[in-house]
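#struct-help
A.M.: can someone run this one for me? Single chain, 221 residues.
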Amino acid sequence: MGATARAYRNVVGALLTVALTLVIGAGGNSVQTDRQSDDISVLAAELQILVLRASLPDDAHVDGDRVLLDRGKESLSDLAAAQVMAAMPKPLRCQAGVEGRALFVQCEHISSGELAQAHELTIQSLGGHIDGRPFVSSGPVLVLGGGDSLLLPLDAVRRWYQDFHLVPNALLSERPPSNEESIRGAKAVILVSRVDEVDPLLIPPDIEGLVRAVRRARRPF
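D.P.: on it. Structure tokens below:
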């Protein structure tokens, strides 16, 4: 199997994982910090960092607020790393690892081909353009994952899934806020946790098959 085919199958697996979790609840998480910025693109990149950190294995030990970008010599704060990522050409496909207790992030630009097609389908699906039901439709949105939290405007969440391709082993689910979270101002809550990657052999290999799978997954029980 060629590299392009493997990448495409991983992308498709990630999208179906998200589609399936739209009807599944998830457990709670502790709220530690909120980060604010006037730049929506920076907020979207901070959200990507949270998702990448939450996607790490349970036995991965990383210090909070330390990010080492690919080819970087020194670790950065989450905000500083997000500012660098926000300036990169979009959309991006990013992978996470651990380097000296810092979150190691490697990103590559998605320019064309099947990966770009799959990313566009992700945008259409999460935006509600396939069946009229967006993943999240009201803000501010409280995102919880990896022991961290972000309270973000809805536009930042939308920019996130437009700018960054889904992380294959990051499970996303949406739920209404609790009373405490509502007091904080949240209108919706997104939970991020790690799952094993979906077996790509179980995923429909064509785009139209994926659209049908997404629609079936999002039907109410």
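A.M.: thanks! The radius of gyration is 17 Å.
D.P.: also worth noting: The mean pLDDT is 78.
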